[in-house]
Design brief:
single chain, 285 residues, mainly alpha, 13 helices, 79% helix, globular
Length: 285
């Protein structure tokens, strides 16, 4: 059951990223984030309320603070991810943005003085090779490096992975005391508040019809179900089992990029995605 749910969730993850790639051409970055997160909150909030009524909450100020900081990282990660999808191929964005578990493993050693993963060096090499192959096109072997220094797409994709790593590190600290569904709703709530403040300050709050336009409803529902399933799966199985299953979303997103957006170099990017996935699995062992 866990494996089947994990594979299905990975499919939803890839589908949701492809959906965001489709929608970002017609929405502002913050506007789309606000719409999608509002739908996610509609699903998460009732579940969080139920959990509050069934468990006792004895949470320290430190845990609440970590939850808020995690939401801040989530806000920054969402904004950079949507900005990256606006200018970068889906098949290039997804592998580069998914090196965050390796960054998390490094961050745990540096910031929390935890025992280093014995395979961390090998995982880092896999991440570098995977990102290199993903960004390699037809302009010579130095093109990936040049793109990282010159092009916004790869820069934003890599920055997305950094923010995702920051969110994961702080979420892990908060999750020690805050129940999972409550934390997930709190995380989404912080992001919605920050997006709302930004949109109100810039006078770009979306009208109600923007919540109902075209494909936004089915794509938003996919995203909301995906977020709920992630929480459920982490409650059913250890991270060492769940995280590798989620990584199936990376090659699926590469295939979706080629199929639905006519992107090139899909075969090479699949090999790059395989290296990234291998690196993530190594740090989860």
């Amino acid at each position: 059951m866990v494996v089947a749910l994990g594979v299905f969730t990975a499919f939803l993850m890839a589908s949701f990223t492809a959906g965001k790639k489709h929608l970002i051409q017609d929405y502002g970055t913050a506007e789309l984030g606000f719409v999608l997160k509002t739908y996610a909150m509609c699903l998460l909030l009732p579940a969080a309320v139920w959990q509050v009524r069934t468990v006792s909450l004895d949470v320290s100020g430190y845990a609440w603070t970590m939850g808020v900081v995690s939401g801040l990282f989530g806000f920054l990660g969402l904004m950079t991810a949507l900005a990256a999808l606006r200018v970068e191929d889906l098949s290039a964005f997804k592998p580069v943005s998914k090196v965050s578990p390796i960054i998390v493993a490094v961050g745990e050693v540096v910031f929390f003085d935890l025992t280093g993963q014995p395979l961390l060096f090998a995982a880092a090499i896999c991440a570098v090779v995977g990102a290199y192959l993903t960004l390699l096109e037809d302009a010579g072997p130095t093109q990936p490096v040049r793109r990282l220094f010159r092009d916004r797409g790869p820069q934003l994709a890599l920055l997305t992975s950094v923010f995702a790593a920051g969110s994961a590190l702080t979420t892990r600290q908060a999750a020690i005391e805050i129940p999972s569904l409550v934390l997930a709703a709190m995380w989404s709530g912080v992001i919605i508040v920050l997006l709302g403040i930004f949109l109100a300050a810039t006078r770009q709050l979306p009208p109600v019809k923007r919540f109902l336009d075209g494909w936004v409803v089915p794509i938003a529902v996919v995203g909301a179900v995906k977020e709920w399933l992630v929480v459920v799966l982490f409650g059913l199985a250890p991270a060492a089992v769940v995280v590798p299953l989620f990584q199936l979303s990376v090659p699926l997103a590469v295939l979706f990029g080629g199929q639905f957006f006519d992107e090139h170099h899909v075969g090479r990017r699949l090999i790059g995605a395989a290296f990234v996935v291998a690196g993530v699995i190594l740090v989860s062992l």
